[in-house]
Each structure stands twice: as structure tokens, then as C-alpha cells.
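For reference, the entry.
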Amino acid sequence: MKPVIGVTLSTRRSMLIWLMHKLAIYMAGGIARKITANTGMDETVDGYVIGGGDDIGLEINGNRINPAIKYDAERDALELETLKYAFAADKPVLGICRGAQMLNLSRGGKLYSDLSDFKPELSRRNIILPRKLVHIVEGSKLHELLQRKELTINALHHQSVKTPGDGLVEVARDTDDVVQAIECQDSGLLLGVQWHPELIPWSSSHRRLFKWLVDKATAQTENKV
């Protein structure tokens, strides 16, 4: 039986992202299942992708919200509930872009609400092709997985991790010194990346992130049998 991976997404403007996640998980040997505020939380899946999308509308842990932006409170609540369950049930999680930020907030971490808060000259990134270089911390689980110290990524964000949450450590930064990946080294079940690997399916390095998730989901399921 192939492991089932739940993918949390917005109820709007998510078809392309859903199809790319579905492909990435299929190529990794799993089956994707969409989870939205309309479907509600799904405890039957074997692992989770907390997907990308709009800003997080939670004014917690120093996360500043913009009153001019329309947030998705139902999605925020769904993902917090999903992450709380995943932590308790020891199910693996891959957070992508917004999902990495949500993973961090859910563990008590803090965000830069805008990259300009980190460095005034920085602003929103809109680079869909892999053109940004990141440096990966040697000895990290991400380094062990990818077997490389540098990786070229895309960038579609204007927020980023400021302070890692409980049990999380930063394991990659880009050339502007922005945090681009976090992980839990104790459990080995939580990984968050600021970029969108599902949009780079031709890259074996980016596909390994989904293979990691599928393999962890399989192993956790087998351990509980």
C-alpha cells in the first residue's frame, strides 16, 4: 500500500499548486489527498505537506498582520489543528513556503512579517525558476538528505523565519542571509523549506524532499503495525 500524504491548500486559486503537489508525491511513491477548510482535518493520512499560499493571518509570536490584506482564518485554524495532531501522532510534515512559516509559528517561533523588516533593501521575491542560491548547514538532516552544501532554489515570498520554534533549528540560508530551511533534528519528522520544490519537478534534489516525506510516512506506519 502506498502511503497517503495530505496536502493543505487554500480553497481558492490552488488548482495548479495542487496538481504539482500531486505529481511530486506520485513521483516519490505516494498518493496525495487534498485537505482544505472545506474538507476539514484528515487524521487518516500518513504524512502531511503544509502547502504554500497567502500570508498567515495569526497575530501570535510577534507575527504582524496587515489590515489591508484579506486573510484565510479558516485555513490558518485548519493548519494549526493539523500540525498539533501531527506532532502528537508522530506523523512527518513537510512545510513549504507559507507552510514552513506555519510550522515555525505553531512551535512558538517568530517571523519577519516582511523581508524589509530583516533588511530594508529586501522585498518580495517572485522568482519561479531556481535562480537563488542557498547554503545548507553541514551535518544537518537536510544536508544528509541532499548530500550537498549548496542548492539553487526558487523564491516566492516576502516573509521568512526570524526565530526558530521549539525543537526547530535553521539549516539553510540564502545569499541575503534569509533563513530558507528549518528542521527538527530530534524527531527527524519535521522539515520546512521556504521555496517551492513542487514547481521544480525536473530536479532530483528537490524531488528528494518529497521522497523523504513519503519514506518517513511509510516507516512511521510500519513502526505502528
The mean pLDDT is 93. DSSP finds six helices and eleven strands in the chain. Residues 204-223 form the longest helix (20 residues).
